[in-house]
UniProtKB/TrEMBL annotation:
Belongs to the binding-protein-dependent transport system permease family. LivHM subfamily. Keywords: Amino-acid transport, Cell membrane, Membrane, Transmembrane, Transmembrane helix, Transport. The keyword Cell membrane applies. It is a multi-pass membrane protein. This is Branched-chain amino acid transport system permease protein. GO terms for biological process: amino acid transport. GO terms for cellular component: plasma membrane.
Length: 649
């Protein structure tokens, strides 16, 4: 009994963080209608600001720093300034990013929120020394005995703090005039404006309060939970799971669910030490809990989730059916061949990586740009293809090109499984499911020693008709034969996809994207169309993952981590998520692609790549949602129209 109590209380610290994140998510959703994927990152910044103050006495800003004292500041000062910094970041997120997108499509709001998350994640390792840092103690040490187990006083304080914050937020919404006006604005902003309240100001108050609350609890919990440049960012997923269990309505319910998830994960950790627990479930199994909760909650309560009554709605970016004209297509292929032949070393590797990434980017264009389904799991599908490729080439000896088929079909099957929730939910809720699925797959499959050896997953080199297609030969980092093989595979799949999107399949995708009910009334099987879209997208990503595997010769969990997938989403959205040309451009600016080589090899600023990509995503989402290729297309159309008008005159 004492061991159970001990592990229950060990889950208090992280459960308190989950609880305050969940409470904040419910509050922000009530005020703005936005699911804030950056809530954990807002806390992350405050945690590192407080830790730096408590260690060196320096206040680190996004640009520059201020020496507050000659040595470490007091815990009270560090906590206060760190909490204030989280509140300021939250307010800036509202004012500069999400308020301008109040009436924008859900896709724009989701990618902007993800962009803010990535900006902060990219800034932390650039502004702080994240190697070996330890948060100084804040709460009093000592233990108390509960049912025979020694329970840390700090853990009890954290639970009390999380519950107190939830009570304050719930009381503010229920008993104050501003809180009741905020709840009313979630139903009808126009009516609230007519009563003299500003929905923007009401939302700003909630953003500041939740930013400060999340930062405060995360800072106080950091000596127990630990300092990490990434983990707090993805605490948003257990928080989202808890918020969804509370139907995005009850702050107190979300708080209780967050504490429960933290405790349950701790109990799973205890069970993993028992002999009866299977070996394959000893690593990463706890990270699948948020995914399972999200799926169950959305299936059970999906249609009961509150929607916000907006003033006006902007349309999704327009889509034009692709036309693979022979001459431009041949010119593009010729340019790619020339780039392969005229480069070597890291430059040719960057060209090949860009070609591969354009295929994975195309999978996002199909699923999100054409079908309108927001997916954050593209690299999970790609990783599935890559890891299965390792098995089929090393254990079963299947040769290229047949070695691509099995892994791509495995990725397709996973895509269909992830697509099942899309039959009931859409929009930001689907983004939550796919992000949770991506993290669960990364932790439980890719990062599980039972499935992935510590030395990595080796992949046999490809060959065809006696021609060696291996990526390396002697000192040659990337061979011409391998590069041309990659170009051929990507070109063929891109052409086939373009033909599908230009035909009945593409028209069905666009109909579902525009209005599912209207599509169904026109005789389109919406469920089958969604499953087909996910299957096609996952197949393309799976083949892309295989090509990444061949280009690396071995794979590890870092090859397909979630941050790489989110960064790729940045590049696709910036390039233009509604066109094949956008996928090609996204490949050029994708991670480890041509742009990354230029930043690293020519300009020497490669460490800023992720930050640049994230900032570009936020700016594009706010100012230019059609992306670069969309802007070029609109400009060319406008110019052609002006020339035609002048000719008629």
């Amino acid at each position: 009994m004492d061991q159970i109590v001990l592990f229950v209380t060990l889950g208090f610290a992280v459960g308190a963080v989950y609880a305050v994140v969940a409470s904040s998510l419910v509050a922000v959703h009530a005020a703005t209608g936005v699911l804030n994927f950056a809530q954990g990152s807002i806390a992350l910044w405050g945690v590192w600001v407080a830790a730096e103050l408590g260690t060196t006495g320096t206040l680190v800003l996004p640009v520059g720093s201020i020496a507050v004292s000659d040595g470490p500041t007091s815990a009270a000062v560090a906590v206060a300034v760190g909490t204030l910094s989280s509140a300021v970041i939250a307010l800036l997120t509202h004012l500069l990013v999400l308020r301008p997108l109040r009436s924008a499509p859900v896709l724009s709001q989701v990618v902007a929120s993800v962009g803010v998350m990535l900006v902060i994640v990219s800034l932390v390792p650039l502004r702080f020394d994240v190697t070996g840092s330890v948060a100084p103690p804040i709460l009093p040490a000592g233990t108390v005995e509960i049912l025979g187990a020694a329970v840390a006083v700090s853990d009890l304080i954290l639970v009390g703090l999380a519950v107190a914050i939830a009570l304050l937020l719930a009381g503010w919404f229920r008993f104050t005039r501003w809180g009741m006006a905020t709840r009313a604005s979630a139903q009808d902003e126009t009516a609230v404006m007519l009563t003299g309240y500003s929905p923007d100001r009401l939302a700003a108050v909630v953003w500041v309060a939740t930013g400060a609350a999340t930062g405060l609890v995360a800072i106080v919990a950091s000596p127990t939970v630990g300092l990490d440049p990434l983990s707090y960012t993805f605490y948003v997923l257990p928080g989202l799971a808890a918020a969804l269990l509370a139907r995005l309505r009850s702050v107190l319910g979300a708080c209780a669910a967050g504490l429960g998830i933290g405790i349950f994960q701790s109990l799973l950790l205890m069970m993993s030490t028992y002999d009866f627990w299977p070996t394959w479930a000893q690593a990463g199994f706890g990270e699948t809990v948020p995914f399972l909760i999200v799926v169950i909650a959305l299936f059970a309560f999906g249609k009961a989730m509150p929607a916000r009554g907006g003033v006006v709605a902007m349309r999704m970016p327009t889509v034009r059916p692709p036309s693979m004209k022979p001459l431009p297509t041949l010119v593009l292929i010729g340019v790619a061949v020339a780039a392969v032949l005229l480069t070597d070393g890291s430059w040719r590797f960057g060209v090949v990586t860009s070609i591969i990434m354009s295929l994975i980017a195309l999978s996002l264009v199909v699923l999100t740009g054409y079908l309108g389904q927001i997916s954050l799991a593209a690299m999970a599908f790609a990783g599935t293809g890559g890891f299965v490729l390792s098995r089929v080439t090393t254990e079963y000896g299947i040769a290229f090109p047949w070695s691509l088929i099995g892994p791509a079909l495995a990725a397709t099957l996973l895509g269909v499984v992830v697509a099942v929730p899309a039959l009931r939910i859409r929009g930001a809720h689907l983004a939550v499911v796919t992000l949770a699925a991506a993290l669960a797959i990364e932790s439980f499959v890719f990062g599980n020693p039972a499935f992935t050896p510590f030395e990595g997953n080796h992949i046999a080199d490809p060959s065809l008709f006696g021609i060696d297609l291996a990526v390396r030969s002697g000192t040659d980092l990337t061979t011409v034969s391998f590069a041309l093989m990659v170009l051929t595979v990507v070109a063929v799949l891109t052409w086939v996809t373009a033909r599908l999107l230009a035909g009945r399949t593409g028209r069905a995708f666009l109909a579902v994207r525009s209005n599912e009910r209207a599509a169904a009334s026109a005789g389109i099987d919406v469920a089958a169309t969604k499953l087909l879209g996910f299957a096609l997208s996952a197949f393309l990503a799976g083949v892309g993952g295989c090509l990444i595997g061949y280009s690396r010769s071995q794979l590890s969990v870092e090859s397909f981590n979630v941050l790489v997938g989110l960064t790729l989403l940045c590049t696709v959205y910036v390039a233009g998520i509604t066109s094949i040309a956008g996928a090609v451009l996204a490949g050029l600016i994708a991670p480890l692609g041509v742009l990354a080589v230029i930043l690293e090899g020519t300009l020497g600023v490669g460490e800023y790549y992720s930050l640049i990509a994230a900032l570009a995503l936020v700016i594009t989402a706010v100012l230019n949602p059609v992306g670069i290729t969309g802007s070029v297309r609109e400009a060319s159309t406008h110019l052609a129209h002006r020339r035609s008008s002048r000719a008629d005159a």
